[in-house]
Fold these 2 entries.
Entry 1:
Amino acid sequence: MTFADLVPRDAVFVDANIFVYHFAPDPALQGPCGQFLQRIENQEIQGFTSQVAQAPGRLRSVGASPANGSRWRSRKCPKIRK
């Protein structure tokens, strides 16, 4: 199955890799992943995830930074209070 096979109102699990490839400087994967996320944002399909917290570390490991063409910007997360 590919992203193009998804039809309106489909519900899919979105792995952290989709976010990594969307922001990483890889033109072969960046476009399709971005289009897929845009379809979710436009509510054409439903996306569910549980691993988004892994994405920033994975982005650093693949060398994603604005200096080498990535759209990803690192930001510090505020502390969560109990």
Entry 2:
Amino acid sequence: MVAISPWISNSKREFVLQMLYRGFTPQQVFDNHIQQVYNKARLSPHIFLTRDDYLSLKDIFNISQRVASEKYHLHNNDAESIR
């Protein structure tokens, strides 16, 4: 039995972040990921699957929520927020 990491790798997280920052929707990011996994499996049918290959739409939504929360910055006096 092969142990799979419970977290996605930093490289996959960066891939998702880059696509989200470029304006792709979480569904588009997920579709792109599925296409990449499909192509990887088609080229080599005996591949070793990692946690990154099991990326879910929920994972992408969690990352996108962090991106959305980063868009708000507190003003220096913390009394007002800016976008």
